[in-house]
Each structure stands twice: as C-alpha cells, then as structure tokens.
Design goal:
Helices cover 51% and strands 14% of the residues. With 199 residues, the chain is α+β, with helices and mostly antiparallel strands.
C-alpha cells in the first residue's frame, strides 16, 4: 500500500468514526432553556403533556417506581419501565442545558410527543430543542401520539444549531469538518485529475 492509499484509508476511518460516534453514544433528546419559563404557560404545557402521558402509563414509571407520580401541575418526571428503562425525562428541568437519553426505547414516543407540546408553548428563543434523530422520521411515533391525543398537527420542533450550541461552537464545528473534508477531497481528487491528464 503506497503512502497516498494509506492516507486515504486513514481519512476514511477517521470520518467514519466521527459520523458513527454519535450513534454509539446513545439516542438522546436535548432541550435548553434560555430563560426561565413563564409559570402560567408552563402549567398549560404540562397539562397537555399529562394528556399524552395518561395514554401510555402502561410503559412508564415515575422517579421512584411504578406507583410514583409522573406529573404534577408544573413538573414531569418519567422513564421507561423494566428493560425499556433508560434515563428519566424531567421537564422543565434546569435553566440551561437538559437531555434525556432514551436509546429510542418505546417511551421515546412519549418524550418526543411531550417536546412537541413544549414547542407549542415555548418558542425557540426561550427553549431550544434538538435530537440525535431526524424530523420527521425518528420522531414519527411521538408525532402520531401527539396528533392522536391533541387532534392537531405538530410544528417543526427543532431549533437552529446556532441557537442550541451558540455561534462560537457552530463555527468551530464547521471549521473542524471543513478541515477534515478538504484534505480527504484533495487526496481523492488530485490523483484522479493526474490520471485523467495522463490519458
């Protein structure tokens, strides 16, 4: 294997590691409060979340087991049950960054439906929502649950990347990917162009 082929193989492996690393970390939903939620709007939001949660109590547990409360007037705390348990979904959570790793287990549909409700009540400048999954494919079960219970079509829930992580990190992340992609393109394109010229 010559030097260029070795570099190509290394870059391919590096790119695959970067792309696949997220999938190995665990499927997660993210939500970030940029300001404290309005108490009245929070109560309305949690009341609608309760309607969704009440349809799936057979797959959910509270913070201290099956008999504990999942919802009160301003707070949600739930998890999957048994083997389908992962991390708790706590809403509204803390001011700032929050997340819930669901590993796409059945209770993920409840979590995503609740986040769709949150989007109805809080715009992205107040609450950023993002996901390891894509809209609408990976949120399909949550979207169907939301529509079945509330009788309306959900809004696009995701926030722009810059709102989730900030401008500095967005630019830094873009620079890192460009720094990795440009050499990879050159390693593939330059030898191809040289071969074409020789013909």
């Amino acid at each position: 294997m010559n030097r260029i082929q070795s570099l190509r193989a290394s870059l391919i492996i590096l790119c695959l590691c970067l792309v696949c690393g997220r999938a190995h970390a665990g499927y997660t939903q993210y939500y970030t409060w940029h300001q404290k939620p309005d108490p009245i709007e929070l109560q309305k939001c949690v009341a609608e979340m309760r309607l969704i949660i009440n349809t799936r109590t057979n797959i959910l547990v509270g913070p201290n087991g099956p008999e504990t409360m999942l919802v009160d007037s301003t707070h949600v705390d739930l998890n999957g049950i048994g083997d389908d348990e992962c991390e708790p979904f706590v809403f509204p959570g803390d001011l700032g960054f929050n997340f819930c790793k669901t590993r796409a287990l059945p209770y993920d549909a409840v979590v995503t439906a609740c986040l769709l409700v949150a989007r109805d009540h809080f715009p992205s400048y107040e609450l950023s929502i993002s996901s390891d999954g894509s809209w609408p494919d990976d949120w399909q079960d949550g979207s169907k649950l939301y529509s079945a219970v509330l009788g309306r079509t959900p809004k696009y829930p995701m926030s722009p990347v810059w709102r989730v992580v900030g401008w500095r990190y967005t630019l830094y992340g873009s620079a890192v990917y460009i720094a990795l992609i440009c050499p990879a393109v050159l390693l593939f394109a330059v030898p191809w162009l040289i071969k074409r010229r020789k013909k």
